[in-house]
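> Could you send the LysR family transcriptional regulator prediction when you get a chance?

Sure thing. Input:
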Amino acid sequence: MLGKDYAYFIEIARQQSLQTASDLLFVSPSTLSKYVQRLENDLGLQLFERVGKRFILTYAGHRYLAWCQRMKAVEDRCQRELQHISANGKKILRLGFPSMHVKCFLNSIIPAFLREHPRIELSIYERNSSQIWPMFFDNKLDLVFMYKNPATLSGNIQNAVVSTENMVLCVPKGHAIASASQSRAGFPYPWIDLRAVEHENLIVVSESAQDVVGSIESIFNQYIPAPHIVMRAMVLESIAIGILQGIGISILPDRLLHLLGYRNCFDLYSFGETPVICQYRAFHYAHSSVEQEICALIDLAEENLRI
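Output:
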């Protein structure tokens, strides 16, 4: 139903006269008469009692009028908002990223972005990574930032590396494992053979979150025949807190620990034949209506998230 149809019905009900309503609506009485006949036929209900030349609402007509008024109000509001957007060039950019990165983005990246793009409105969705990706896949988000391997993505999804980070063994300060570490060329932290943690309690990522952050458990399985896992978590910050509380040790991205404010709470160790890295990436769809703004925000994130 179009907005003019709402207006037709509301005005006929208000004036109780096709002639008077037609004068106010600038249409012929015959046009309104055909409109009422078609509407009543479509609904299978009588909306007006014809009393002489007066059109008096039936009970069904009163209920239909109430809905017409609601729908017209919504349409009017929609038109005003679209006119405002057209006049001001305003766009909405829907962002999604793990809540653990919100603080960093709000402290530096987003304020700088809004200064450069004052006509953009941001809608921020903070979820764990396993919840964000389905929202993005359903086109409910324009841009997401997360740890995810892009190898299986469709060609319509673009991605850019925002930060390359070292995966490190993370243990509480002063942990006895320090005695097994050594300096090794090419590694950013003291190196350790992961077989040395065979008897340690380990914290890993829940299966439902492995697709977006990788399987920490699979790394331990390469070195330890039967790793002793005491906790699984979907949120990486929960793993960091578990380490801090002495529940176990784990593997996490070093940059993430810095962003969360835990970097100085732990001792960090490199491992593997070569440094093990992960990449924090930005994902968006090709040919988005906010593509220019997406690229600008990615550039700012790359600049601010370098280690």
